[in-house]
Amino acid sequence: MSATDFHDLDESLRRAGAPSDAPESHGMLCGALCAGVDEAGDWLDQLLDQANGPEEAQEACRRLLSELCDDTRKRLRAGALEFAPLLPDDETGLADRTDALGEWCQGFLFGMGLAGAALKLDELSPETGEVLKDMNEIAQAGFEGEDSDEDETAYAEIVEYVRVGVQLLYEELQPVPPPMPASETLH
Questions:
Q1: Which residues contact 44 (CB under 8 A, 6 or more apart)?
Q2: How far is CA 167 from CA 54, 58, 135, in A?
C-alpha cells in the first residue's frame, strides 16, 4: 500500500490536466524505477509535459507525484512485501478495477521504455522476460460480464502476479549493492 491515496492522485492529475490517470501514472513511475531512469525525473516530465491545467494545479500534482516516487522507491528497495501497484480499492467495480490494472501495466511498459537502448531486454532472465510479456497481455485485456467470486479471485491473483513481477524486475535490473565490510583497522 502506498502512502498516496489513489483517489487524491487521480483528482490531482485531473486538475493538472495531465493526459494520464492514477493507474497509468503509477505504472509509468514503477517502470521508470525498474529501468533506473527515475533519478532525472524523465517519467515526471513525460507525464506532465502535455498537462494543460492551471500552473498551481500542475505544481501541486508534481509535488504529489514526487512524494509518490520517493515512497514507491523505498517500497521497492524494501522488498516484495512492501510494494503494491496503486489501484482502485475493492469498493470500485471489477470492470473498472480491471481497466485500471490494464492502464497500470500499459504505464509500466511505457516507463520501462523511457530507458530506451540503455535497457538490454534481451539480457533479462527468462522469468523477468515472461513478466514483461504477460504485462503486455494484461495491458490489452478487458473484463466482460458480472462480478463473481471467481472473477474477484482471478483479479486478485493477477494483481499479486504483477506486484511480485515488478519486484522481481526491480531486483534484477536495480540490484542492491552488498553492504560494505566493516573496517578492520585497530584503534
A1: 29, 62, 65, 66, 69
A2: 36, 30, 13
Find out whether 9 and 25 touch, Cβ atoms under 8 Å. yes
pTM (two decimals): 0.88
Determine, yes or no, domain membership for 42. yes
What are the pLDDT digits (tens) for 155-180? 999 999 999 999 999 998 887 665 55
Q: What share of the chain is helix, strand, coil (3-state, %, to 5)?
A: 65, 0, 35
- Listed in sequence order, the residues at least 6 apart from 45 whose beta carbon sits closer than 8 Å to its beta carbon are none
Handedness of CA 135, 106, 25, 174 (dihedral sign): positive
In a domain, 179, yes or no: no
* Owning domain of residue 76: 6-173
Our count of domains for the chain comes to: 1
